[in-house]
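Support request from a user on the community tier.

User writes: "When I paste my structure tokens into the form, the page sometimes reloads and wipes my input. The last time it worked, I copied everything first. Here is what I submitted, just in case something in the input itself triggers the reload:"
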């Protein structure tokens, strides 16, 4: 029932969402937006935007790797990042208007 895709496919999708999250976050910040995640915001202040987003993505991918054998959980993680990217895209679209 949960075996919609092979486990590594979910990890690849998670990686794609990390790239989309990075791109949309940087674009929002360049347009005067702000980071809403307080932990990532602190990392950005301390290390810079790209370093903070790299660390966040590395942690997310590490969690994805650990969750490969627990399909409901990796699907949930992918869904969370789909929501984050969706939110970012909504914010970008709102700034266009």
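"...and here is what came back when it finally went through:"
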């Amino acid at each position: 029932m949960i075996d919609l895709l092979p486990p590594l496919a979910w990890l690849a999708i998670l990686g794609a969402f990390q790239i989309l999250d990075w791109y949309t976050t940087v674009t929002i910040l360049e347009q005067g937006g702000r980071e809403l995640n307080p932990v990532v915001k602190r990392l950005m202040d301390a290390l810079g935007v790209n370093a903070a987003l790299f660390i966040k993505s590395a942690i997310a991918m590490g969690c994805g790797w650990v969750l490969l054998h627990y399909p409901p959980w990796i699907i949930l993680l992918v869904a969370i990042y789909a929501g984050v990217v969706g939110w970012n895209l909504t914010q970008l679209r709102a700034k266009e208007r």
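Agent notes: The reload is a front-end session timeout and is unrelated to the input. Helices lie at 7-30, 38-47, 49-66, 71-96. The chain is about 80% helix and 0% strand. Escalated to web team.
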